[in-house]
Amino acid sequence: MYKVDIPISKDLKLTLGNICKLAQEVGFDACGVAPVRRLDDDAQFMDNWIAQGLHGEMEYLARNCDKRYDPTALVPGAQTVVVCLLSFEHSGRDYHRKVKSMLYALEAKLKETFGEDIVSATHQHIFCDSAPMLERRWCVEAGLGWIGKNHQLIHPTLGSLVHPGEIVLNKAVIGNRLSGIESQESDIGQQCTDCHLCLDACPTGALRNNVWDARECIAYTTHHCLECQNVCPHNKQLRYE
Ligand code: SF4
Ligand code: SF4
After folding, report:
1. 208 in a domain, yes or no?
2. How far is the CA of 218 from the centre of ligand 1 (A)?
3. Residue 70, in any domain of the structure
């Protein structure tokens, strides 16, 4: 698991360290937390992206925008987003099922440790590859990495071949996010410096000028292309066909 330089407190307060410890127990490779806020910058970026038609046939992205940009519109009383990552290496083919079952296991531990009211009793609060959550953004908010020129989350040690999952808590967490990694949707690729391997490897030109064009992306038309991730130096320990 990604090392967290935050001591685990012994009095079981709702801290980042204690949440990460429970996430580690259920098998996640990394965990972070972010206080809930409305993602105004992302709303502007996404609205512009959708207005240009770059989302292709993903019509669902043009719906439920309020919920997507503001977790309190999705889960009343939301205060914290817990973000967990599972490496491709540990997820198997049916990653939705695996990540969701791990999130439910983590939720059970959180309730047992911190009380049933830690999550909403009435609204869905567990998400994995779900349209209403800007998952990649919440990964960055939680300090789990940055967004590369391939438009994927890049975790400092796990790279981009990770599956995220989230639990929205109705309680605030004591302490801060994992690290000082800061980037906005408009900062895509800034941490890649002068590397452009993913841009060169993309067979269709879907990645260009800091834009990802879903209409041209094979992963969204045939669901099988990982070229822009396989060439990334941050994924050097893993390669998927
Ligand atoms: S998944 Fe394939 S087609 Fe899509 S952006 Fe990456 S390299 Fe290009
Ligand atoms: S291949 Fe290079 S430019 Fe692309 S995401 Fe990885 S580091 Fe960034």
Report:
1. no
2. 6
3. yes
Is 66 part of a structural domain of the chain? yes
The tally of domains found in the chain comes to 1
CB 78 within 8 A of CB 28: no
pLDDT at 216 over 80: yes
> What is the 239 CA–ligand 2 centroid distance (Å)?
14
Closest Cα to residue 20, out of 167, 132, 137?
Answer: 167
- Read off φ and ψ for residue 237, nearest 5 degrees: -85, -10
Residue 104, domain extent: 16-187
Task: Give the atom of ligand 2 at the shortest distance from the alpha carbon of 152.
Answer: 5
The predicted pLDDT at position 240 comes to 54
Of 153, 187, 196, 208, the one to substitute when testing ligand 2's pocket (max ligand atoms within 8 A of C-beta) is 196
Going from the Cα of 167 to the center of ligand 2, the distance in angstroms, rounded, reads 29
119 HSE (CA, 13 A, CB side): 21
Q: Which residue of 188, 220, 227 sits with most ligand 1 atoms within 8 Å of its CB, as the best mutation to test the pocket?
A: 227
Angle at 99 (CA atoms; ends 137, 12), nearest 5 degrees: 80
**Tens digit of each residue's pLDDT (9 = 90 or more) over 30-74:** 999 999 999 988 888 888 888 888 888 777 777 777 888 899 999
**Within-domain flag for 2:** no
Cα distances (Å, whole numbers) of residue 171 to 88, 158, 219: 30, 28, 37
Which residues' Cβ are closer than 6 Å to ligand 2?
148-150, 192, 195-198, 231-234
Calculate the CA 77 to chain-centre distance.
Answer: 21
